[in-house]
Design a protein that fits this description.
Distance between the termini: 52 Å
Largest sheet: 4 strands, mixed
Low-confidence stretches: 1-16, 18-23
Oligomer: single chain
Radius of gyration: 20 Å
Amino acid sequence: MTSKTIKPVKSTKPKPAFKTCKDAGNQGIVLFNSADLKSIRDKSGPLTKQNEYQVHYWALVFRHKAADDSILDIAIPTTFFNYEQTVSSAHIDFELTDVDDVSDAVLPIHNMKAREILDSNFKNQLEARFGVKFEVFSSPLSQSHKHPS
């Protein structure tokens, strides 16, 4: 039996500007502070170890859309908030209206923190580091979800 060399086929799709080793799509980076995450876990009580739970947060998002339409989002959580949840090791039950109500209530805190970031040199430093421009917007219903273990 003879072996034949097969030349790799080159993709005609443009390469995205941002990618991981598995996915060439959009990318998101959330700049969590580990002390904040620990505080959330501690304040959420003893059920957090064996159960699922989640927390929502407002974020200030810096978005770059590349020429190939791929997106890089860099999010800074500004205001974490919680609401009544029924948790178990398999699922979480809550009312989305509760999430919306609490999100609306903490909007002034988000606005204050977002203003601090926007008044700083963060955006200029980010654009200088990446060499691209970022648009800025607020995200009211970002969330972090924890599975047991």
